[in-house]
Amino acid sequence: MSETIVFKVGTSTLIHETGRLNLQRMEELVEVISDVMNRGNRVALVTSGAIGVGVGKLGLSSRPRDTAGKQAAATVGQCELMFMYDKMFSQYDHKVGQLLITKNDIADPRRHQNLVNAFEKLFDYGAIPIINENDAVAVEEIVFGDNDSLSAEVAIVINADRLIMLTETDGLYDSNPFKNPEAKRISCVERIDDKVCACAGESTSSFGTGGMITKIHAAKRATEAGIETYVIGGSRPKDVYKLLEGEDVGTYFKAVK
């Protein structure tokens, strides 16, 4: 049975600490998504990384702190990201389309419907929508601030069956696995409450935003809309196959029926 699946990939999955693209990882991700498409599923990809890639492309020593610097880095990085996605997906005979979204595109009824129409037409044409926040026009009032939240909203807009977030850790742990070697992965979350939120640590990436807490908030938003949500390790994109076959991979957040 075909499904509609939203993949969200974080900056730490896509780029090296130098800010340059992790080409091997990106190739694996594209291959897996292409194969999932070949099975008859509809797929959308929410991608982070524009600012991080822009930082590397521009030769900056660190991520800019000012809004104008972030916007400039995003415009450079987004070009590079889409060029690589287009090139890699075309090797598997798949087409891609870019959507840059702000909160207003979701909140405003007219723009929301236009967005729904654009997604539906892309799916009709057999294309993969590749979505990012519109960092180039980013101001606090109109942005989500992290692509985890954006991925949940996209999943709701397209009435997805699953949201799969690939990140720097292979799921939610009961404590920070980078600091505590005894930390245990939480395989399944029946209900997102304060105890679950307390398990979230901070992001370890120098170029990304968010962290596990934003993924939990996104999972809450998606699961309350009836969308099964998963957080898995981005370093092994082929674990998506295991997930789709029902194996215990990452952390599964059960949808609220």
Order of helix and strand elements from N to C terminus:
EHHEHHEHHEHEEHHEHE
Strand content: 15-25%
Strand order in the largest sheet: 3-4-2-1-5-7-8-6
Main beta-sheet strand count, sense and barrel state: 8 strands, mixed
CA-to-CA gap between the ends?
A: 20 Å
Over all CA atoms, what is the radius of gyration? Answer: 17 Å
Number of helices: 10
| Helix amount | 40-55%
Which geometry do the CA atoms define? globular
User: Which residues form runs of ≥5 with pLDDT under 50?
Assistant: 203-209
Task: Count all strands and give the number.
Answer: 8
Classification by helices and strands:
alpha/beta
Could you tell me the mean pLDDT?
Answer: 89
Summarize the structure.
By secondary structure, the chain is an alpha/beta fold. The protein has helices spanning 11-14, 23-38, 50-58, 67-90, 103-107, 109-124, 147-157, 194-198, 212-224, 239-244, and strands at residues 4-9, 42-47, 95-101, 127-133, 162-167, 188-189, 228-233, 251-253.
Describe this structure as you would to a colleague.
The structure is a single chain. The chain is an alpha/beta fold and 257 residues long. It is 42% helix and 17% strand. The protein has helices at 11-14, 23-38, 50-58, 67-90, 103-107, 109-124, 147-157, 194-198, 212-224, 239-244, and strands at 4-9, 42-47, 95-101, 127-133, 162-167, 188-189, 228-233, 251-253. It has an eight-stranded mixed sheet, sandwiched between helices. α3 (50-58) crosses α4 (67-90) and α7 (147-157) packs parallel to α9. The two termini are 20 Å apart.
